[in-house]
Amino acid sequence: MSVQVRQAVLTDYSCFARVAREVHEHHVAAVPSVFRSVDIAFSEERYAELVSDENATMLVADCDGDIVGYAVLVLRHTARDIFVPRTIGFVENFGVAKSHRRRGVGSLLMSACAAHAKERGATSLELDCWEANREAARFYASVGMHVMRRWLSMDL
Asked: Fewest CB within a 10 Å sphere: which of 56, 65, 113, 119?
């Protein structure tokens, strides 16, 4: 298995969409009160916006011509006076096809996210992760991420 992480191009969409839908269905199963099944989990229009956005980096893990993972990295700048001014590399969306999990694909993608964020002036790499997604939380911890804050909810 030869996997390369590269910037996505428009023609990657159909392969990307297949993995994005699989990852979305994983979230549907984990948090059904929030996520619902849909035919298209990530629109082609949104994909095209991100591929061409100068403040975003759309990465794909290419395994011998097939997309088996992806990461959407967006630069965020703190803008409120109460925060230390900084640039954050925010992983807005991330996923690896079930067939390629625990094979190093996610680690390659996270390393590429960190490198791209650092090159663009970010001082941290951040993301959010659903508590129900324990597998993802363990993975993120294994690549050096730590909990910074908790986003709490109350059902009404």
From this structure: 65
For the chain, the domain total comes to: 1
Please name the amino acid found at residue 69: G
Contact (CB, 8 A) for 70 and 61: yes
The sign of the CA dihedral 91, 142, 68, 37 is negative
The residue behind tokens 């910037």 is 7
3-class DSSP state of 44: helix
> d(Cα 80, Cα 62) in Å, to the nearest integer?
38
Q: Which domain holds residue 80?
A: 3-142
What distance in Å separates the CA atoms of residue 23 and residue 78, rounded to the nearest whole number? 29
pLDDT one-digit tens code per residue, 73-106:
999 998 888 988 999 999 999 999 999 999 999 9
Q: What is the CATH number of the domain that holds 68?
A: 3.40.630.30
Burial of 119 (0-12, 13-18, 19+ CB in 10 A): exposed
> What's the whole-model pTM score?
0.91
